Amino acid sequence: MFRHFATFVVRRRLWILLAILAMTVFLGLQIRNLKIVINPNTMLPAHHENVIGTNLAESLFGSKHVIVIGVGAANGGTIYQPDVLSAVRRLSERIGAVPGVKRHTMMSLAADKAKSIQADGEDLKVERMFSGALDEAELAAVRQKVRKNPIYAGTLVSRDETVASVSVAIDAGAGGFRAIVDGVDKIIAEESGPAVVMRASGTPVFFAAVERYAQRMGILFPLALILIGIIHYEAFRTMQGLLLPLVTALLAVVWGLGIMGAAKVPMDAFNATTPILILAVAAGHAVQILKRYYEEHHRLARSEAGGSAAQLNDRAIVESLSKVAPVMLTAGLVAVAGFFSLVTFDIATIRTFGIFTGLGILSALLIELTFIPALRSYLPAPRVAPAAANGARLWDRLADAVGVLIVKRRAVILLGFLAVVVGAAVCMPHVNRENSTKTYFGDGVKVRQDDRYLNARLAGTNTVYVVFQGKHKDQMKDPAVLAVIEDAQRHIERMPQVGKTLSIVDFLKKMNQSMNGGAASVHALPSTAELVSQYLLFYSMSGDPTDFDAYLDYDARNACLVIWTRSDSSKYAQKIVQDIRDYLGPRLPRDVTIQVGGSVPQSSALSEVLVEGKIKNVAQMILAVFVAGAIIFRSLVAGLYLIIPLLVTVMVNFGMMGLTGIPLNTPNSVSSAMAIGIGADYAIYLLYRIREELDKTSDFTLALQETLRTAGKAVIYVATAIAGGYAVLMLSFDFYVHIWFGMLIVLSMVVSAVSALVLIPCLLSMWPPAFLKGRARRAGLRSAGAACLAIAMAAGVAGAVAPAEARAEEVNAAELAEKSYQATRVDSSVSEATFTMVNASGQERVRQTFGATKLQANGVDNRRVIRFRSPSDVRNTSTLVLENTGKSDEIWVYLPGLKKVRRLASNNTKSSFVGTDLSYGDLVGYRTADWNHKWLRKEDVQGVPCHVVESTPRTPEIAADSGYSKRVNWIARDNSVALRTEFYDANGNLLKTADNAEVRQVDAKHGKWQAMAVSVKNHQTGHKTLIKLTRFEAKGNVADDYFTTRYMEKEE
């Protein structure tokens, strides 16, 4: 069969070369789609409970991968300096605009979510930590707010007050971390200066560094190419012997990477070494072909008198290919099957490595069986040297000596191997099962230095999330459940390496203290679930609807306890996670369960799965090699002979890890798979050749010596090529992923080759198996069975809107804005409404209200009262807003749980209106004179012709007060109602869109209109608010009594 194939290749050499060239060009073009990306989702065991907990925490509370930036004064002083706090403000504004950053998770002293909660007499004062000019008075105020809110100690400000933190979650996804972190680093570099120093850390920073260091392959790959070329030159001492294997190997690399590019599969730090592997394997097999070609050419040249040099060349190609193809195909497909077996891993990045390495080796086999003989037939035949000139080289003499030694000293050799195996077995239990990403880098690398600095001053740069899950809505408002969360916090805070814990408990205790005069004795949880609900509603009247999204979901069915730690060790993670589960297990109330996740538990999940997975994978690969060997040689004994050197290699591999402390982590986990997948080749080549030689002679020693001179020499060349190629990885200083990988693969190749060349012959000489007595050509024909087996495994793996243009016209934009402002402004009104708030996860919160409004005597300032009628836990909670031109507005709140009216001290213009996505300013409207207006175009909205008007604040004070850099209104041409408004944040990014629908005329005499349905979408948080007015009456006889605290205290 193979002789016919070889003859076909030689006869159709031109077409074959053209086909190979065309495919190479096609796949080469696909390489442009390749990127080096770290996608954490592909590195995690998806079914592990810690990963499930992490994904749950992200889906409910938004945080998973957090960047922590420390900002401090260059002079070593406190952060309460204008330069430092100004830098914090600019960082908070600019980093939020980086693509991939979850802006709504931003936490810093300058972030909207960071609020100071404190008592002001009988009032509750909720305000941002700082705003406006950073003069001495403001700096002192910031210091006082920080010290009165210990919630933020260690997270927003270090306990020694020398470092301020800016932290934000990112959404890396399939795009990886580097692009996001590079954008953040660029801002940090621009904002750092002589007075301010900044450092960044966190999981994303380390993953981005892995992506960055993995690109060293662009330098290491050419070095590997040169080293392998040198080895090949030594093998053949000809330029053809140097160049042909390298050209073949490069084509195989192009094919392998092209397949990845065509599949749109990114490379990561762990499969970035695939090019070197394909290069080394392809070059090694090319050496086997060329080695056999030179043997056959020399044999034919001496034995045949007739024929031209070209004919002799072609016959040598056919003879060599027909003999080496079966064994090469068998060995290659066994290796492919071994790599494909990695699909059983529960970690996607390892599955990807196995699949595409296997496909790369398949490509190499196809190229070597076609391209090499086709091109070889065009090249000049090698010069035939006289027999005398072909005396035994050093290796030939060494092979003879080794052959004699194996036969005469086999017992000593076996004892030596046994000693090595026993030593490895002793070291194996000491393997360090550690998956800390930080240990991928040397201590002197900047990311390690910055991480140590921040962990020494802040609460930590690593996170653990404990998600408390209830079966019922509002279960997390139950004081009994909250008490368990608080108890868990105190227990966890006593654990080593834990810097801080935060939960909704901390904020509720602070609110309760502030609502009761600020005494330390009342820094405790509210006594009832209803009071918890009312506190949260009360807070929402001056806070943002997403302020507590990191700690409590919308239904209050789930709560998150956030733990900041200073270690990302997987062994530490296993201990802390188990401790948390053991402690909370017997203490959880009925119908409450927990899930634990975060960056730290994820590393624990990896370690647990890798250990179990490696045992399973090694056993599976060895079984695959055993089955393949038994089929190829039709002997179970042959299968045993194939796996013995593999077992030795695996044990030595793990023993070396235990001896040297090289950790068993994600990148190192594939080394044993590679050792088995490649090491099996050596045993197969050796058994095939020794069987062939025994067909010629019955003298085992002579057969062994000839095998070592031929196949043995080729095995050495292959092993040294792979070892040499991977040895260059050890030049990747300070990046241990490459260094560890290089060390382990070099060791594996050496042990595999020595085991195949010494241990197997030694065993064969002691216990000669029957399968060696069959004809080699029959075994060669049966290699088709191995091909079918590997192809079957491969088959299993495979299963595995442009804006419209308008002509400018003369339109007075200010007049349009004023008409719109007046169109919905009534003297007084009463209404009933249903508010539906929907968070980014689709959870809803529904509230029904009664409201009344009335202009004050000055005709400018408004009065507005809202009474909540449902749900039951906030029923009769009321809020009264009194606008005061030129000074702070008054907000009064009645809490039924306290039976008290309390004043909320806040500038309410940009505060959330009763927890919706509208601010009080949005609801009341913005005075036309405070803004500059520009007409943009005409455009239809909801089928209604509109003028589109852009409004920008006239002064920085107006911008700060409103929270917007601009508003864009679609003003209906018929009634001047703004049917749509886009709001842009301080950085000029689209913040939210409000749509008004079902517009009705409510006062025909004065031409007043009202939208009965309002929809507001916050584009940065994903939060939505739907307001449906079921009743609205514009009437002039609304009683003043509605706007008093007496009315608020009258419960319905």
UniProtKB/TrEMBL annotation:
Keywords: Cell membrane, Membrane, Transmembrane, Transmembrane helix
Taxonomic superkingdom: Bacteria
Pfam families documented for this protein: LolA_like (PF17131), MMPL (PF03176)
Ranges annotated as spanning the membrane: 12-29, 219-236, 242-262, 324-345, 352-375, 411-431, 622-648, 668-688, 714-733, 739-767, 779-802
Mode of membrane association: Multi-pass membrane protein
UniProt GO cellular component terms: plasma membrane
Compartments (UniProt record): Cell membrane
Chain ranges of the SSD domain: 246-378
InterPro entries, A to Z: MMPL_dom, Mycobact_MmpL, SSD, TP_0789-like
Similarity-based family: Belongs to the resistance-nodulation-cell division (RND) (TC 2.A.6) family. MmpL subfamily.
PANTHER family: MEMBRANE PROTEIN MJ1562-RELATED (PTHR33406), MEMBRANE PROTEIN YDGH-RELATED (PTHR33406:SF6)
Official protein name in the record: SSD domain-containing protein
